[in-house]
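User: Batch of two.

Assistant: Item 1 of 2:
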Amino acid sequence: MNLITSFLEYLLLEKKYSIHTVTAYKKDLISLQDFCKETYQQEKISEIHYSQIRSWIVYLVEAKVSNRSINRKISSLKSFYKYLQKIKIIQNNPLSSHKALKTPKKIQVPFSIKEVNEVLSNITLNDSFESSRNKLIVELFYSTGMRRAELIQLKISSLNFSEKQLKVIGKRNKERLLPLLPSVIKSLHSYMKHRDLICSAEDYLLLTSKGNKIYETLVYRVINNYFSEVSSKLKKSPHILRHSFASHLLNEGADLNSVKELLGHSSLASTQVYTHNSLEQIKKVYKQAHPRSTKK
C-alpha cells in the first residue's frame, strides 16, 4: 500500500472524514506528486522538499488558482506530512514553517427576514409533491442552519416527532439534535403525505419525484430559483441560508455558544464568521439610539 492510499484510509477510518473531503485531499496530493515527477523527476512524495512545494505554489498562482484554494491545498499537504511524521516515515514536516497566502476577507451577505418570509409565502403548495418538498427544504435550512450535505443525508429515522427534534449527522460523523419548529413539523407532515405515494425503497427523507435521494445541484437549484425571485443579492445558495439562520439568531440576542452548537461547529472561531452582520446591526442601533450619535 502506498503512502497516499494509507493516508486516505486513515482519514476515512480513523478520522471519520467524509468521502467528499477525502477525495479533495487525494486530488491535492496527486497534483503535487505529478508536478514533482514532471519537474524534478522526484518519484517519492515523502522526499519532496519545501523548495519544490514552493515551485508548485508558484505554478498554481500562475495558473490563476485563487489564494484561498491554494491555502486549502496546502492544508491537505500539512495533514499528510503530519501523518508521515506520526508513522515515522519522515522526521520533519516540510511545511512546518509555511505561511498561508493572504486572502481578502470574504463577507457574505445573508438574506433578510423579509426575503425568507417572502420565499416561504411564494411557494404555492398546490397539493404537489415537489412544492411541498421544496418548501420543506427552505424551512429546514432556515430553521436549523444545517449544511447542504447534512440535509441530503437526512433519513426518516432522523425524525422524532414526539420530542419535536431532528438528528443530524455532521462533519466527522458527529451527531447533534436540532429542535423542530411547529411550522416545520406542519410542513413535514404535508410532505410525508406526498412522499408516501412515491414508490421508493430509500430511507432518505428528501427524494426526487422519481423516488431517488436528492442531490447537491437539485438543492442548490431550489434555493437559488426561489430566492432569485425576491432577492438581488449576488449569491443565493444553501450556505447563505445557513448564514442567515446564524445571523438572525445572533441579531435577536442568541448566545454565541448556543449558535455554535446548532451549527455543528467544533470551535467558536468558525461561528464568529457569522457575527459580522450582527455587529453591523449593533452599530446601526447604537447610532440611532445614542444621544450623542447625531451630528449637530
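Item 2 of 2:
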Amino acid sequence: MHVFITGGTGLIGSAVLPELLGHGHTVLALARSDASARAVEAAGAEPLRGGLADLDVLRAGAGRADGVIHLAFGNDFSTAEALARSVAEESAAIATLGEALTGSDRPFVTVSGTPWVPGRASTEADPLPTDGPVGGRGVAVMGALGLAARGVRSSAVRLPRTVHNRGDGGFAGLLTGIARRTGVSGYPGDGSQRWPAVHALDAAVLFRLALEQAPAGSAWHAVDDEGDAVRDIAAVIGRRLGLPVEPVPEEAFGPLGAIFATDQPSSSAHTRDALGWKPTHPRLLEDLENIVKG
C-alpha cells in the first residue's frame, strides 16, 4: 500500500514510518522543513513539502495514496490560545483529508487521546470527550469516523497521555521539561491520579494494524500501562534529575492543568483481542530510567 502520512518525523511518526516500510508499504510523508524532508528521505520514504495548514498539499497527498495516517499536531501547550489554534488547525486538516478520501473505500487512520471515565478504566467503546481544552480534537475525530458512512474506511487510534521512547515524550516528557525549568519534579493534587502510557514503537505497530485491518468507523486503544500514578512518574523524574519531588498547584501546568489532575486509566483489552496487538517494549517507569541529568 502507498501511504500518505502526516507527522512522519515526530516522536510517533518516526516510529510509524519504518514500521510501514518494514512491512512492505511505501510512504509519502508530509515535511514542513528541509530538515524534515531530509529525515524522511533518510528513512526511505518520499517527502511532500508542506505543513498541516497547507490544505491543498494535504489533498494532493491523499490523492496520491492508497491510505492515509494522520499524526501531526501543533503541540504548543504554552497557553490556552495556542492550544486552541493547534486544535483548529488539526480539525481543518482532518476534514480536508477525509473529504479527499470520500467514496474511495481507502483507509484513513486518525489519532486522538484515550477518553477518561470516572471510576474505571476507559475502553474502546467509550466516546471521546468533545468539551474541555482539547475537546475539538474529539469532535474532529468523531467526524472522521462518521465518514464510514461515506465510503471511507476510517479508524481512530487513541493514544494514552504518555507515548514515550528513551525516557521522553507525552505528558511524562512535559513533566520532565517542567522539572528542568523549575527545579522541582512536581505533580498536581496528591499524585494518585493515573495516566496510561505506551512505548512509541508499540504504538507504531498498532497504527499499521489499523491501516491494514481496522473496520470502518472503529476505535482502538494503544495502551500498554493501564495507569501509572503521577506521583510515581514524578518520583522517577526527580530521582533521575536529582530534584525534589513535590505537589504543586494545578495552575502551574497551564492549560493542561485540569487534564494533568484527572484520573484517567485506560484499557486496551479489545484492541489486543481483535487486532492481535501485543506490546513488547519497556513500560513507562522503566523507560524513564533513560532520562539523563543536565
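The mean pLDDT is 95.
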